[in-house]
Specification:
elongated; single chain; mainly alpha
Length: about 130
């Protein structure tokens, strides 16, 4: 199994990690988790937002990897895109928590650009 498939699994774990950051520090109410998360402020709120954004990024990334694979794009190219995506998404989450909005947005763009790249490879346009 090539790296990109493992990268999809890592990308699926990222939102769970950011959720853990959001819930850290005590006071978490597992009886009403959404109410608890809605009331967060500061870095915990931003970690919750990072979690939500990570879930949103997962589907197009996974689709891009699968479609590029089905279209017989060379695995090395898919793997390279997957690595860039993962690095961008991990850094994106850290920037979200640290409130580095401009850098966070640039990292989001980089991550999403890798998804577009995968689709363009799959369409044999690159």
């Amino acid at each position: 199994m090539h790296f990109a498939f493992w990268a999809v699994l890592v990308a699926a774990v990222l939102p769970i990690l950011w959720a853990g950051v959001a819930k850290s520090g005590g006071g978490y109410d597992n009886h009403a988790p959404r109410q608890y998360l809605d009331k967060l402020t500061g870095w915990r709120q931003r970690a919750q937002w990072a979690q939500q954004n990570a879930w949103e990024a997962l589907t197009p990334f996974a689709a891009g990897v699968i479609i590029a694979t089905l279209q017989q794009v060379p695995p090395e190219r898919i793997d390279a895109a997957a690595l860039v995506f993962l690095l961008a998404r991990v850094a994106h989450g850290f920037c979200y928590v640290a409130d580095k909005a401009t850098l966070r947005s640039l990292l989001w763009l980089l991550g999403f650009s890798t998804v577009v790249y995968l689709f363009l490879l799959a369409a044999h346009l690159l």
